[in-house]
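User: Hello! I'm new to structural biology and keep hearing that structure can be predicted from sequence alone. Could you demonstrate with Metallophosphoesterase family protein? Please show me the input and the output so I can see what each looks like.

Assistant: Of course. The first part below is the input, the amino acid sequence of Metallophosphoesterase family protein. The second part is the output, the predicted structure written as tokens.
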Amino acid sequence: MSSLPKQDYLWIAVGDIHDDVANFARIPELAQADGIIVTGDLTITGGAKQAELVMEALWRHCPVVWAQIGNMDRPEVDEWLREKGCNLHTSVCELTPDIAVFGVGGSTFTPFGTPSEFPESSFAEWLQASWRRARVYPHAILVSHNPPKGTACDVIPDDVHVGSTAVREFLEDAQPEICLCGHIHEARGIDRVGRTLVVNPGALAQGGYVLVRCNDGQLSVELCRLDDQDS
């Protein structure tokens, strides 16, 4: 007798790792995860060797990892991830036959001149190109290191919003079900742009992560944080 197709899936999303993977092994749901999603910033201005150390630490816990550069990763990390076949940046990957995940890494320009910064026009082009492939799936998840502008996920002190206008405009138009983001550590939170659920887990070193579930064809997300008392 053949087994029934798998109906329930669990993915763990983390970001802003910055070379510090110590908290990853403490995620209680790790053993049940079907895959790991990294929103960006594997390193602190690191190259392929540093990124490899981070990815190897994740692969030891789960063989399926999709990742992309953040603004703090050097461009060679993008090339290395592509060679390994696990790059989300400007790519469309299949989580299940019904669920696509697609990504845009890096960030818009910052005052700090970090290694992977791009103009809004590049984000707009990348998003549209990826969406043409992702939109054919019944469900789609955008992974954008740079959060959309004007949400709870892109705000810094003094109530200044520093997210991407291109990402915001894309979400307003395309309305994928979920947008996982990062970049702004202090803006850990959850918000909506129309029907799109926007989630920023915050930095992994601060205990932030997100659970993405698919149960009987329905996607859901849970914003989580490791209990500081367990550290």
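User: So the tokens describe the shape?

Assistant: Right, they're a compact way of writing down the 3D structure. Reading them back into a model, for example: The first helix runs from residue 48 to 59.
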